[in-house]
Amino acid sequence: MPTTLAVDVGKTGVRVRRSGPEGPTEAQGPGVVGLAAADGVREVMGALRTALASLPPGPGRVDVLAMGLVGYHAASARRGALAAALVNELADVVVLTGDVTTTYLGAIGDRPGVVVAAGTGAVALGADAGGRTVVRDGWGFLLGDDGSGYAVGRAGLRAALDHRDGRGGSAALEHAATQRFRELVGLPALVHSADHPSRLIASFAPDVADAAREGDEVARQIWHDAAQALARTATACRDALDPGLPVCLAGGLADVGAILAEPFAAAVGGSVLPAGGTSLDGAELLARQACAGEPSTVVADQVSVVRRADDEPPGARTETDASSATGPAEVIGALATEGVREDLLDLDERDSAAVLRELWEAESTVAPALLAVTGTVAAAVDDIADRLRGGGRMFYLGAGTPGRLAFVDASEVPPTYGTPPELVQALPAGGVEAMVQAREGAEDDGPAGAAMVRDAGVGPQDVVVGISASGRTPYVLHGLREAAGRGALTVAVSSNTGARASAGVDHAIEVPTGPEVISGSTRLKAGTAQKMLLGALSTAVMVRLGKTHGPFMVDMQASNVKLRDRAVRMVGRVTGCDVRQATDALEDAGWSTKVAVVMVLGGADAARARELLARSGDSVRGALALVPS
Q1: Which domain holds residue 200?
Q2: pLDDT averaged over every residue in the chain
Q3: Beta carbons within 10 angstroms of residue 347's beta carbon
Q4: pLDDT tens digit sequence for 70-116
């Protein structure tokens, strides 16, 4: 009897079911953002290993692994890498699909219909007898997922906050929100700092369900609105295929029962089927079909299958070796940053104004590319701030342009935020001399990158940020590997998707800037992206560490006439005091802007102001909160 492994990877959790001669066993673990995240493959594999660790001991490999995972449809470029990792580590045959497909199969089996998968998100999959499939919604909580657990939770929290503000809302939901999240005034900060904000907000949906069952009209209306939204998604899916198809509401949100199911059925009309099973059941069905050599008939175009080569022993596949100094020329040439813009083949024949326009129009694409990775960078910022708050340091690793940009950013942090020079340091390939005279060959010296990290004494409290436009620079790859081995937090910044540097790091930040105006000259768009990212990264970390108050750099070193004048204006602007009072406070504070602000606003002398700052983690706002009103 073959051994199969069914896997359901969602935002809320990862569930696994191993079936074989010994019978089925199940386990679960924490969820993931999804395969579409920059480090999606690493996240999925890590979450899967965590869940599998809870299973009883069993075979190291299984015959077939079938996985339904969140983010599958948005991450086509990463499916191959995930399949290769799964074949290498766990199974001879891997069947991959989206979580909506396994939800479909678990709910109604391999037959025509429409299934609305409603959980933290919401998406519908429809399939007709001819094998045609359509997907509706699933656009994520910012742009879609209408009627999802996130949508219900958000509506419930808004009703709670409305009642708190005296704008109507629901007293029952305000009470429930207070019970779950404590003081509601801190809710925005809690959501902002959450690893998965949509999942956090969706966690309030059960409370909205309880309030609805107890007769709260606002909560009942929220569920009615969710049912209407899910019904619109279902009918859009059904109408695109066959108006006579049956519809099924499935997923975790369907467990709330009649408060959602009844208005959904009324809005959909026609035949509404009960869900026969879960998405994990759907994954197991795919695994059994693969074992029997009978692929799915109605959702075949939603499924991909990867098999281990017959002549390839288990474990033969390995990740690309980061230690290699160079790869085949065609691999390097295939990188997007090395691409050629065919529309610019006559660039040297154009006038100067036209050349400048091309350069600046290309640069205008950088900010949108950075905004697209805001969540990924924010997660790195929070983790970096935690390490530095605990006494750690941050090191930048880079060669060529990235190394020089890192050197500039690191050198600007101490005067701007009053930090010791060792807090943020650059470790450029070729050393400091390479900052004034290019040593391009230094990037290929991988062992030098590892030696830089060792010589800096990097340890578990520290952070190492590797910057490489290509994402494959040996100096950076070796340095990141050495840092990871020492327990440091590792962050990889690259300008290509699927970068080699992204493998095995804690935070992979990929900002795909595409071909340059001058092919391969990554000091242009890629360099601009690196400059903007490093400036924002270090600034956001300093904000988290309390080095600012509002938009003011209250920890700057007032080391010359210009900066002392700025300090006087800053204290006056923050506190509302006049120039004389601001100057006196700064002189008493030893020209510490932060201390002077607390002195003026807190009515304290310099010693007391420093004590308050020390107690508040060096935050002006926190120090002032300690002053009795």
Answers
A1: 117-272
A2: 86
A3: 14
A4: 877 766 667 778 888 888 888 888 888 888 889 999 998 888 999 99
Q: Which residues pair with 85 in a beta bridge?
A: none
Active-site residue, from 43, 174, 284, 443? 443
Sign of CA dihedral 80, 81, 82, 86: positive
**Contact present, 452 and 427 (Cβ < 8 Å):** yes
Asked if 208 and 303 sit in the same domain, the reply is no
On the question of pLDDT at 361 being above 50, the answer is yes
Question: What is the rounded distance in angstroms from the CA atom of residue 148 to the CA atom of residue 202?
Answer: 8
DSSP structural state of residue 506: S
Max CA pair span of the chain: 87
- Whether 443 is a known active-site residue: answer yes
Q: Where are the beta strands (DSSP E) in 217-341?
A: 247-250, 272-273, 303-307
Whether 135 is covered by a domain: the verdict is: yes
The answer to whether residue 327 sits within a structural domain is no
Residues 6+ apart with CB under 8 A from 329: none
Alpha helices, DSSP H only, in 68-216?
76-89, 99-108, 149-164, 171-181, 187-193, 197-202, 205-213
**444/533 same-domain check:** yes
**Among 223, 250, 272, residue at a domain's last position:** 272
C-alpha 497/C-alpha 81 separation (Å) is: 12
Catalytic position from the list 26, 358, 363, 412: 412
CB 613 within 8 A of CB 595: yes
CA nearest 570: which of 591, 546, 588? 591
Query: What 3-state DSSP class applies to 166?
Result: coil
Nearest to 585 by CA among 562, 560, 558, 551: 558
* Residue 237 in domain: yes
Clarify whether residues 303 and 215 are in a common domain. Answer: no
In the block, which residue shows the tokens 């699927």?
A: 498
Q: Cβ distance 55 to 275 under 8 Å?
A: no
Distance set, CA 551 to CA 4, 543, 554, 609, 624 (Å): 56, 9, 9, 21, 17
Is 262 a residue of the active site?
no
CA atoms within a 13 Å half-sphere pointing along the CA-CB vector of 527: 17
CB neighbours (10 Å) of residue 139? Answer: 14
3-state helix/strand/coil string of 382-411? HHHHHHHHCCCCEEEEECCHHHHHHHHHHH
Q: How many CB atoms lie within 10 A of CB 590?
A: 11
Q: How many domains does the chain have?
A: 4
Quote the CA–CA distance of 463 and 453 in Å, as a whole number: 11
What is the SS3 assignment for 459? coil
Does one domain contain both 291 and 254? no
- What value, to the nearest 5°, has the Cα angle with vertex 109 and ends 104 and 111? 95
Residue where one domain finishes, among candidates 292, 307, 322: 307
Condensed to tens digits (0 to 9), the pLDDT of residues 40-79 reads: 788 888 889 999 989 888 777 888 999 988 877 766 667 7
Q: Which residues pair with residue 273 across a beta bridge? A: 248
